[in-house]
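Hi there,

I know you've been waiting on this one. I reran it after we fixed the sequence typo, so this is the corrected version. Both the input and the resulting structure follow.
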Amino acid sequence: MRDVELYRALLGVTAPWTVAGVDVDLTGQRVVVRVEAGAGPYPCPECGTSSRRYDGKRRRWRHLDTMQFTTWIEADVPRVECASHGVKQLRVPWAEPGSQFTALFERLAIDLLQECRRSTSTVEGSISTHTKPGRAQIIFQHPAKCSLS
């Protein structure tokens, strides 16, 4: 199994999304999985009506590590022009709208917080070593997903 097929299976991406490539940086211990949405047309995220591509925005999400390698998912996420709802960005299946982390990465962070029962700053520090400053704060500010008791 090749790297593209491996990550396609691991991420579970389905049409219109596909893994277009995987870049491995051995020196930097980084993996970048490039995902594409295909040619379209795409469904409006509000009503599902088939719509044409309006434009796209390059996005990047922190994913779970691949072995000891920091892993990122990158995609040019299309925006569609719907007759009823105007211009809307497609939703990606691996992350919540507006998040900079994949759902699996967020789940790991939440589980870590609940299991370790350490202070948020200690756990945040360990997560922050592999992300840009301030990004870990986004995870800890999701009250609906981070109901810690």
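Quick highlight: The chain has four helices and six strands.

Best,
R. S.
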